[in-house]
């Protein structure tokens, strides 16, 4: 039978898209299911075979849930602001809005050719004015609650292009575009106080169904640590240097201090420092380095002693030297540390290099002169006065109690998480809706003036000094203060790409609402998202940012759930045939268009799911695609062997119940590859038998429909079943009929009964032997002995002879 996938797929897609078959219903009495995939950045390259891996997986989930009676929301949209489009626009002198429109069109054509069951009536783009109006609105609420503030921050600055660069534009310390040196330069930036939410972002992970990797990565990124802050007096002055430590127990072993090169106290004492020139030179050198370079563990330690000041260790009154070094970061803790070389690796290396004393205060390891002893689980305090003899954990507590009592220090929790740098000096982003007035300071635009639209220009290049291109548009910049009516200027920075993607899942719920970001009763019905799938690379930025915004919206009463996503999973990468990452330069990129044209969408989708375990990286294989094509063709050809019978044939009854169970459970557990494999195994059985009943065909194509929706829908109509397949109920199975006939046999060792095991009645001798040897009790008894012989009596016993 001829399998004309082109015709079949076009026919069904035309129908689905013209009727919007998969639209979510506005009936809030139905049980709901909100399936979400990360919306793509519509790049000039078009869809990559990695995108459909995620989209097909949740398309399967969405289609199955509909068949199970859920009101399903499965939407799609575009994360369309951002740098690649802007850079392309600058290079080719085309407006970024046009580039975006063209790219979206292409992406949409591609997605439609694969037959995803998206509700296209809810399509959104972050670049639409009606959309970013609400991105700006959320920003204003953050501003009004004091969660947006402006601060000088170091940015990456290309010395040749004279522009600020995003981190991803800096490759190995040089500008990605011109190869020139990139330095750090201070610029005033809008910041969002995500750190206010650090603890809740950790605590609330508890109740969520996120894959463990994601939880761990988020926790590590937030990086909570418990310790103490304490003061070291500068000898002969009233000033003190405050440090943060997680190891207050080691205070007796603090033999010097280290400040970050940017530490404020240096300026105050500049006149007193005998080696100020050397200090200045070191500061300059440190300013060039990125934080990543500074904290690299393998890097040789460098630093300069501050000649002219000495600190006093508060517990033993010893005078200790003060250094600056780039391994101490300005933005963590207090930007200063007490150095304990005996018990910290970095301090140890520094002490060795500068010939500083290493004093052991925790005994338990080797000689601390040859290696730092960093273990905190075993070891007892020594050389530490009132702490001597205590375990580390107890010593930490006792020392902090002591410091608090004496007023020298106090308990303190720190987070690695930093506030979110929210400014970009770029054109293709949402304008920040604030105005600066000399009299009133920063004033928010009245909400009825939103959206503040991007002004038209054909000059998108950033300014000479790294200002946003908007700064050049003085007509737009100069305005009046909404507060006092006096002259004022607009903020010219724009928002980062992360802004629009931090709340897009809310807009899908009510994409055309113009009185709120979405109507409350709709948010209440659809939230939280039931299943969100996306890339691991978005764990610490997008996923965390959107959880933060959602929590904020919860706090101000916009949404009713404290968390946006109930479940989060992540797919593995699809690699090139050679096992390397797909990239243009490696010439191993597979274009979904080619696959759909040559093999059809059903084959392409099936292969995307069959390629390997969903959460693992897997190489593409054109032979694998061909194998799936043959499978799909065999499914099509079932139509040539179908009988008039409505029920299940006795020979295949068990196989069908087993397969329904397997496919149902595997789809729910993201084991798409084994579900497809089960359907492949079943079709072999069917062909072995030589015929399929109508009843069996109905079940078979229903099970395959979520993965291969077009040909199964066509087969449904051909077979004369009523209505449409996607409206049918998902098949049920009878648990009892999935079980093989079983028997209980005895397992013996040297003729003595040791255990009873239940096995399938039709096992071969070899399989019986294997089952006996895998039995825990037998395994234990046999371990370490030599098996001489195994005797099997089918359906009765296995006797293992050992010596
Ligand atoms: C004394 C000490 C002794 C430390 C010891 C460690 C081991 P986490 O767990 O990551 O929070 N530290 C503090 N501020 C720093 C900064 N701005 N730049 C670089 N290092 C900094 O680590 C806290 C520890 O990192 C602190 O505890 C401090 O060194 C260092 F045997 O203080 B510790
Ligand atoms: Zn004013």
Describe the structure.
The strands form nine sheets. Strands 11, 12, 13, 14, 15, 16 and 19 form a seven-stranded mixed β-sheet that branches. Strands 2-1-25-26-10 form a five-stranded parallel β-sheet. The protein contains 25 helices and 32 strands. The model has no long low-confidence stretch (mean pLDDT 94). Helix 1 (5-19) packs across helix 23 (709-718), helix 20 (653-668) runs parallel beside helix 22 (694-704) and helix 22 (694-704) runs antiparallel to helix 23. It starts with a helix and ends with a strand. The protein is globular. The chain folds into five domains: 16-139 and 498-571, HUPs (Rossmann fold), CATH 3.40.50; 151-192, no CATH class; 227-415, Valyl/Leucyl/Isoleucyl-tRNA synthetase, editing domain (Isoleucyl-tRNA Synthetase, domain 2); 592-737, Isoleucyl-tRNA Synthetase, Domain 1 (Orthogonal Bundle), CATH 1.10.730; 740-802, Ubiquitin-like (UB roll) (Roll), CATH 3.10.20.590. The longest helix is centred in the first third of the chain and has 19 residues, at 96-114. The protein is α/β, with parallel strands linked by helices and 803 residues long. Bound molecules: ligand ANZ and zinc ion.
Low-confidence stretches: none
CATH architecture of the largest domain: 3-Layer(aba) Sandwich
Count of domains: 5
Per DSSP E runs of 2 or more residues, the count of β-strands stands at 32
The DSSP helix count reads: 25
Which CATH class of the largest domain? Answer: Alpha Beta
Rg over CA atoms, rounded to whole Å, is 33 Å
Strand content: 15-25%
Query: First CA to last CA: what distance?
Result: 63 Å
Give the CA-based shape.
globular
| Helix/sheet category | alpha/beta
User: What's the mean pLDDT score?
Assistant: 94
Please state the oligomeric state of the protein chains shown. Answer: single chain
The share of residues in helices is 25-40%
Largest sheet: 7 strands, mixed
Which fold name is given in CATH as the topology of the largest domain? Rossmann fold
What hetero molecules are in the model? ligand ANZ, zinc ion
CATH H level, superfamily name of the largest domain:
HUPs
